[in-house]
Design brief:
Blueprint lengths: L2 E4 L4 H12 L5 E4 L10 H6 L7 E3 L5 E2 L2 H9 L9 H31 L8 H21 L13 H10 L13 H11 L19
Parallel strand pairs: 1-2
Antiparallel strand pairs: 1-3, 3-4
Helix pairs in contact: 1-3, 1-6, 4-5, 4-6
């Protein structure tokens, strides 16, 4: 059975988990407590030598790192995969954008603002820099979404899931969602897709009894 190694509260871990939930794919979920350093334990390093999460082990035993690569693999042949070459290229464009212009800034700002708030003061300058670096990407995303419901014209796809992971928790990074009304409307649209599950439900598997 496919196994997803993930940690609670992670936008990157949410991506493959949500895709499998919405595609009704059977999988097991193994939680790794990164705050306790479990990702560097010998047992986990034997599974993923890079010592990071998320990590997907397919039912054939292949290991896949990088959340957006997992989405591409999981969505192959499904309605979540863009229908033609141009749509797939556009999806990849936005997935690369997410990992270069959004996630590297929203994620650490959120980490030291909300997940480890006791370090917020010591990292105040870093948080401010990450927030400033995130705003141009968020402005571009907001402009893109100003005349559409989802990222691609064809509708809801893995491009939406990829970007949703961290953008929907931007306020936990100290970024005002009210500054981006089109993003806010898009977040609501994604949250209303069939079989959507919120980040707070990440601990749920979809393993079935034999």
């Amino acid at each position: 059975m496919t196994t997803l190694y993930a940690c609670l509260g992670s936008g990157n871990c949410m991506k493959p988990w949500l895709a499998m939930r919405q595609l009704d794919q059977t999988f097991e979920l193994t939680l790794i407590d990164v705050l306790k350093g479990e990702q560097k334990s010998p047992d986990y390093l034997a599974i993923n030598p890079l010592g990071v999460v998320p990590f997907l082990v397919t039912d054939t035993g292949m290991g896949i790192g990088e959340s957006n690569a997992m989405l591409w693999y999981l969505a192959d042949g499904s309605p979540l995969m863009p229908q033609d070459a141009s749509g797939r290229a556009e999806a990849l464009q936005w997935m690369f954008f997410e990992q270069s212009k959004l996630e590297p800034f929203i994620s650490p700002a959120r980490f030291f603002t909300t997940i480890l708030p006791d370090q917020r003061g010591a990292r105040a300058d870093d948080i401010a820099a990450w927030q400033a670096a995130a705003r141009p990407g968020l402005a571009r995303l907001n402009a893109h979404l100003s005349d559409r419901t989802f990222m691609l014209a064809q509708g809801y796809t893995i491009a939406d899931i990829a970007i949703f992971g961290y953008v929907h928790v931007m306020e936990e990074a100290g970024l005002a969602l009210t500054d981006y009304p089109a993003i806010s409307a898009w977040i609501d649209a994604v949250a209303n897709t069939p079989d959507f599950r919120p980040l707070s439900a990440l601990g749920q598997s979809r393993a079935r009894a034999a």
